[in-house]
Write a structure and sequence with these properties.
alpha/beta; 10 helices; TIM_sf; EC 5.3.1.1
Length: about 230
């Protein structure tokens, strides 16, 4: 991972799959190249192979199941997303939770496969204990703000500052802020508060001109880090 971390979760909107998803990925790749910023795309499992063949960006799965290879109909173990071309995966998103006692085992499997991981938590108290399990990054997202357009950096800045304090104890794990981030100002504030990147979804996926939104996010992330 390279700083600042910009993670865009495609979720499963009508432009999250098919040609629309590929066209969006290409527009985002152009911005990534122009500003020399790595932009991670977390895409539906059915699109990992197609998008990873079309763009030179880190493509993540949105979820992997903590089950071994074998008789698990419908499951998506990490081995399958790596084979499809994924470079990493989200884990424990608020819309796709896994049991806390399964997180350590799934993170070990992911590491052994050479995949990156972004572990999602909903409150700062979980940042340190889950940080000890050594995901590459922790994404903190108060679920009540997800998709609202009310950013965590404005509505609950203390969530970020307290998470920053907690992540320092874990050492070697990045902190990403998400939930409700919808403007460049939100991005700037999140990084100014100490986050090392941002995670977004609807602000990009539901925008009329998503590439302009992504560019605004990238510019403000670079400004907040003194790189623009």
């Amino acid at each position: 991972m390279r700083l600042p971390i910009i993670l865009i979760n495609y979720k499963v909107y009508d432009n999250s799959f098919g040609n629309k998803a590929i066209e969006l990925a290409k527009k985002i790749e152009k911005i990534s190249r122009e500003y020399s910023v790595e932009i991670i795309l977390a895409v539906p499992a059915t699109m990992i192979y197609r998008i990873s063949q079309e763009v030179n960006l880190p493509i993540y799965a949105q979820h992997v199941d903590p089950v071994p290879l074998g008789a698990h109909t419908g499951a998506i173990p990490p081995e399958l997303v790596k084979d499809a071309g994924a470079k990493g995966t989200l884990i424990n998103h608020s819309e796709k939770r896994i049991r806390a006692d399964e997180i350590d085992d799934i993170l070990k499997r992911i590491r052994n496969l050479g995949l990156e991981s972004v572990l999602c938590v909903d409150r700062y108290e979980l940042v340190f204990p889950f940080g000890l399990l050594k995901p590459n990054a922790i994404l903190i997202e108060p679920p009540e703000l997800i998709g609202t357009g009310i950013s965590v950096s404005k509505a609950k800045p203390e969530v970020i500052t307290k998470a920053v304090d907690e992540i320092k104890k874990a050492k070697g794990v990045y902190l990403i802020a998400g939930a409700g981030i919808s403007t460049g100002e939100d991005v700037f504030k999140a990084i100014e508060l100490g986050a090392q990147g941002i995670g977004v979804a609807s602000a990009v996926m539901k925008a009329k001109e998503p590439e302009k939104v992504v560019e605004d996010f990238v510019i403000n992330a670079l400004k907040a880090m003194g790189k623009f």
